[in-house]
Please model this.
Amino acid sequence: MGVKHGREYSEIHKELTVAVGQIQDSYVFFEMEEEEWIQLPQEDKNEVMEALAEDVFYGLGTNPVITVGSGIVMHDPETHRINILIGDTELAFVTLV
Model:
């Protein structure tokens, strides 16, 4: 189902892909080891990040906070944003409207 949004999903997905890619160990979400991640060609890494963004977007529809590696992705329905954080530091956000 995903979260409610007013922008085109393709734009949200593109921005969310970049945002979750800023989490250095985001590959842990898919239970990958660092060595596995390092050995992946860049094209494959891009595909993994696209899949991660999609999984997170749809997961936020039922769970407003999702752990991704050492980061947290959270849906804030009041500001219509998806926030990407590590600890108290905001790495990025994606607007939904």
About this structure: Residues 9-95 form one domain. The chain has three helices and four strands.
